[in-house]
Design brief:
The complex is a heterotrimer of chains A (290), B (465) and C (325). Chain A has 290 residues and is α+β, with helices and mostly antiparallel strands. Chain A has seven helices and 14 strands. Chain A folds into two domains: 104 residues, Sandwich (Immunoglobulin-like); 170 residues, C8orf32 fold, CATH 3.10.620. The chains are: A alpha+beta (290), B alpha+beta (465), C mainly alpha (325).
């Protein structure tokens, strides 16, 4: 599937601010399942843009606006070609809980088992996760059950949580948005020893009735490590195994590692944030594919 | 159509080749005459400048379409999008803080001496922060088959009506061939253009009133103006139809005055407002700039975009892209020597007979020198001009434009040089019409494809996969 | 609708009407002059079209060439068609493709050498073709565009021109000082395509009085002055939206009063005033109507439409270049 994404982030400041220093993670990643055709990040007021790769191998752009300004606009435009990692009849079963213990020493997994800023393992979370796992011995089956649990038992609502809400609060309150659902799932998985990372990206709702969540904003979900199958994406907000409708921007331990825009400025006032995301399919015939 | 190395037909031309083999030359030229007659009768014409008679001519049309496979087109789209984003950031920057100048990527003097730089626009907020809404970049292909960008027409690019009419003509003349190829349609252009214009409207909660401002019926592109206005369903107005009261723009109608929100102006900056620019302009609207700068009316394109058309600025576009986007240009420039750089100038002067010299601010093929075809005297004259006004000249190596089979006057089919002008719209999103105006130099070995200097055009087919 | 557009539509159809009337006039005159002993059979024609003076100043020797093709004559058939097309070109987006195409064909024809050749060898065919082109366009205007404001302006232009031309033909009769020979009367009627219609009403009672009554007062002949003014009155009201019998601007007022005068006059009234003076006063009224239409809708009082701004403002009219008349 070819997807075209337009993502606009606008910060308005009541009083002019200076030295606005920002890091932006809005470039889609290159993965076996997605190929980035174009990606343009543009910033107003116009200024020099530089880029580097962070510890999680995400592509980061950086800029600084020294002169006074009252508005900052960051536009990201990309076209991405995606493909479905797994067909429905060949889901990544077959990785057993006993094996998962071995991977904890891997460089690539170790980080994603530890506590992080928004996600910590608590006995309470561990006990809940064990209940959900029940007698499953297959990691994918367990993860699916965790996802299913969050999807069914948590209420999807904005306003109840903030951008800084911790996983343990989410699990306690049973309410939140995609970011919270992803944090909760990460916490459950890690407490069972399954490496799990937080993913930010976009999601195209290809259903006719457009009832899926998260397609009008930047979206978040989880990737879990499944041995020979590699990292597999699961979206607890929509109870879906990640397919060709998803575009990965960045992954990390939690939201802090992948925030689309993060920065500092000097100024007396706070900022008003507006975000606009549009994900379109460039296929000639997409209706009804889900 | 033919590969440069093997002289074999490119696979995407195979079907065309077979199809045309069924016609004899006479029947092809017959079809061509029919089409040209239709164009004349329907008044699809342009007026030639510098001709007292105001002669109307049709834009000669060639029956052999140019075909661009999807892969190749995608690259063009990506490159054009990148260029347009970067140029818009550049314009915003130079009319505000000038970071790119402070960071010494481009010398201030180059920007401020560009003929179309508008100091009036310094610090002005343009609607939606978009400067170039409509761009018609000229592309050529070099020996290796790479597309190169020749110039960005960021002021009032014209030609899109011929593109649409050529397509109509081809669909009528070769319906079977056309449907065999799965060609991407182009007829959504007027809709996209209208959306782009409406996006700019400064007035909230009111259906935007958009108009097309034309210099009038004697302008060479007048046909195009009426064509677009009609397809979009908006009024086509002349300067005298508009009036500014208390910094709002109105048009005079039989029912009184009606407020105008967006003006798609096909009039150069110079002529927009006699109070601000040329006093002798009879085409403009007094007070328009005041209304514009107060944000009460939007203009497409914005005032001052001509800086991006300056050929010296052009030479900096790769650096502009690198600066604002931290990316390599997808479409390369033609190598360009700047006469105001001493090193470049001595190179230009010593290689004048092998270079194309262009004046920095002229378009339409005027004010240029084709080194290899020039007489000694012309070379000397130009050398003197360059020495007198180095800022005003650039030079480029002669790129042998790619050639495309074309029906010639003697009815033979021969290769003629072509270029390509795709049209890009920058509104809520960036849209590129799938195709473009392929212009062809009808005279043998000529490299000049401008309609005003003996060029013709072809339909351009972009294929679905 | 843009004022300039209304103006162009008005002149587009007015020039077409002018070309048609000219062609008919010339043809009738030409045919008649075959039998004439008059050394200057074309003179009344120059007089009728008010072009004597221009002709004398022109390089053109041949009156026929002058009337049909000369560039010196702003009202030659060729120039009329060029003006009509020029106006159409400025409002191409407002008229149908068919009108544009056929008007363009007409223009290309009348400019061609073929047209001059045809005029020299088979003048009748040339004139008939010209008339046919005009009729075709008139039909297309009727059948292919919305009958909305723009169309009403086209009708207004056509009707003013037609009424004016009919009075000019009547004036040509005045040239004979009331003793017009029968043949002249017949040709005057023919110049207005009125001969058959006249006969249907008056049989063979052809007299100056009857011809004049018919061309001025007939309630059902489409080229009579009264008929034209009645139609004009209708179209003016259609544009302004005010009910017939009232007026909201000068154009409507003068038209209404002229119509009333025509409705209740007879040829005996005319003889009291004097034939020439009567025609003259009518022509002055037509000019005034044309001027008032221009002032009202084209030159424009600067009132801002209420849907965009409730406050209605009036400003001094600023000068506006007027289009070729």
């Amino acid at each position: 599937m070819r997807l075209k994404i337009y993502h606009r982030t606008v910060y308005e400041y009541a009083n002019a601010v200076i030295n606005n220093n920002n890091e932006v993670r809005l470039s889609p990643k290159l993965t076996p399942y997605q190929q980035v055709e174009t990606n343009f990040i543009s910033v107003l007021p116009a200024t020099r843009l530089t880029r580097y790769t962070d510890l999680n191998f995400n592509r980061v752009h950086h800029f600084n606006i020294p002169q006074p300004h009252q508005q900052l606009t960051i536009d990201s435009r990309c076209t991405v070609k995606t493909k479905r990692p797994f067909e429905i009849d060949s889901l990544p079963y077959g990785y057993a809980h006993i094996e998962v213990k071995k991977c904890s020493q891997h460089d690539s997994c170790h980080t994603y088992l530890q506590d992080s800023s928004f996600v910590e393992k608590t006995p309470h979370i561990w006990r809940e996760a064990l209940d959900i796992q029940a007698d499953s011995t297959d990691v994918f089956q367990t993860c699916y059950a965790l996802m299913d649990f969050i999807y069914s038992d948590f209420t999807y609502a904005s306003g109840a949580t903030q951008v800084t809400t911790h996983a343990s609060e989410v699990i306690k309150g049973r309410i939140g948005v995609c970011q919270d659902f992803a944090h909760a799932m990460t916490a459950y998985c890690r407490s069972l020893g399954i490496p799990a990372r937080y993913v930010s990206g976009y999601f195209f709702d290809s259903t006719l009735d457009q009832k899926l969540r998260g397609s009008e904003a930047s979206h978040a979900w989880v990737e879990v490590y499944l041995g020979q199958h590699g990292w597999v994406g699961l979206d607890p907000t929509n109870r879906k195994v990640v397919d060709e409708n998803y575009v990965v921007l960045a992954y990390g331990r939690d939201y802090r590692d992948v925030a689309p825009v993060i920065g500092t400025y000097f100024g007396r006032s706070g900022s008003q944030l507006t975000i606009h995301v549009k994900v379109e399919s460039l296929e000639t015939n997409t209706a009804g594919v889900s | 159509m033919f590969s440069h190395t093997s002289r074999k037909t490119f696979p995407h031309y195979k079907c065309l080749h077979e199809h045309y083999a069924n016609y004899n030359v006479a029947s092809l030229s017959n079809k061509q005459r029919l089409i040209e007659n239709t164009f004349l009768e329907e008044g699809i014409t342009f007026t030639v400048y510098g001709d007292n008679q105001g002669t109307e001519r049709i834009f000669p049309f060639d029956l052999i379409p140019r075909i661009i496979p999807q892969k190749e087109w995608q690259l063009i789209e990506e490159g054009l999008t990148q260029r347009l984003i970067a140029l818009n950031l550049f314009l915003h920057d130079i009319y505000h803080e000038g970071q790119i100048i402070k960071d010494q990527v481009i010398p201030e003097s180059v920007v401020k001496t560009a003929a179309h730089y508008r100091p009036e626009m310094q610090g002005v907020k343009v609607s939606r922060d978009i400067y170039i809404q409509i761009c018609g970049t000229d592309l050529i292909r070099d020996d290796a088959g790479n597309y190169l960008c020749l110039e960005d027409n960021a002021r009032c690019p014209s030609g899109v009506s011929y593109l649409l009419e050529n397509r109509e003509a081809m669909k009528r003349a070769f319906p079977n061939l056309y449907s065999q190829y799965r060609v991407k349609p182009v007829d959504n252009y007027p809709d996209l253009l209208l959306k782009t214009l409406q996006h700019l409207s400064p007035r909230q909660g009111h259906g935007p009133v958009c108009v097309l401002l034309t210099p009038g019926a004697y302008n060479s592109a007048y046909f195009e103006h009426t064509f677009l206005a009609r397809k979009m369903g908006i009024e086509i107005v002349e300067g005298r139809d508009l009036i500014v009261l208390d910094a709002y723009v109105y048009m005079r109608t039989t029912k009184g005055l009606e407020q105008v929100d967006v003006i798609y102006r096909r009039l150069d900056d110079d002529f927009l407002d006699p109070l601000c620019f040329r006093e002798d302009s009879m085409l403009g609207v007094s007070g328009l700039m005041e209304a514009y700068m107060k944000g009460n009316v939007a203009l497409a394109n914005a005032v001052g975009t001509g800086v991006a058309d300056d050929k010296v600025i052009y030479a900096y576009v790769p650096e502009i892209i690198k600066y604002y986007l931290d990316q390599e240009p997808i479409l390369q420039n033609v190598p360009t020597y700047l006469a105001w750089r001493e090193k470049d100038r001595s190179y230009i002067l010593s290689h004048l007979d092998s270079l194309v010299v262009k004046s920095a601010n002229e378009s339409g093929g005027y004010g240029m020198l084709m080194g290899p075809c020039a007489t000694k005297k012309e070379l000397q004259n130009f050398a003197k001009k360059i020495e007198n006004e180095p800022r005003n000249f650039i030079a480029q190596p002669v790129i042998s434009l790619s050639r495309h089979p074309t029906i010639c006057e003697d009815l033979s089919i021969e290769g003629r040089h072509v270029d390509l002008r795709p049209f890009v719209l920058y509104g809520d999103s960036i849209e590129i019409i799938s195709g473009g105006l392929t212009r062809v130099a009808l005279n043998k070995d000529s490299l000049i494809v401008n309609s005003s200097q003996g060029g013709g055009s072809k339909d351009t087919w972009v294929l679905n996969d | 609708m843009l004022s300039r557009v209304a103006n162009s539509l008005y002149w587009l159809s007015r020039y077409l009407e002018r070309a048609e009337n000219l062609a008919r006039l010339v043809e009738v005159n030409r045919y008649e002059s075959l039998d004439s002993t008059d050394p200057n059979p074309w003179l009344p024609l120059l007089y009728t079209t008010c072009t004597e003076k221009i002709f004398r100043e022109s390089k053109e020797q041949d009156v026929g060439m002058f009337i049909s093709f000369s560039e010196d004559n702003p009202d030659s058939i060729r120039e009329c068609v060029a003006h009509a097309r020029e106006n159409a070109r400025m409002v191409r987006d407002q008229i149908s493709e068919e009108i544009w195409r056929d008007l363009n064909r007409f223009h290309l024809f009348i400019r061609s050498e073929d047209a001059v050749e045809l005029w020299q060898n088979q003048p009748e065919t040339f004139h008939r073709r010209t008339i046919e082109f005009c009729m075709l366009l008139s039909g297309l205007i009727h059948a292919t565009v919305l009958h909305d404001e723009g169309w009403h302006f086209m009708q207004i232009g056509k009707l003013i021109e037609r009424a004016d031309k009919t009075t000019r033909v009547l004036d040509m009769l005045a040239y004979y000082q009331g003793i017009a020979p029968r043949a002249k009367l017949a040709s005057a009627l023919k110049s207005c395509s009125a001969f058959n219609a006249f006969q249907a009403e008056y049989r063979s009672r052809i007299s100056l009085d009857n011809a004049m009554s018919f061309l001025l007062f007939s309630a059902s002949f489409p080229r009579s002055v009264r008929f034209c003014i009645q139609q004009l009155d209708y179209h003016l009201h259609a544009v302004s939206g005010s009910p017939i019998g009232s007026y909201t601007n000068e154009a409507e007022r003068i038209t209404g009063s002229t119509l009333a005068q025509l409705n209740f006059s007879s040829s005996s009234n005319i003889l009291q005033v004097g034939y020439h003076d009567y025609i003259d006063s009518l022509q002055k009224q037509f000019n005034e109507i044309g001027q008032q239409v221009f002032d009202t809708y084209i030159l424009l009082p600067l009132e801002i439409r209420s849907n965009t701004n409730s406050e209605t403002r009036r400003r001094q009219n600023d000068h506006q270049r007027q289009q070729q008349q």
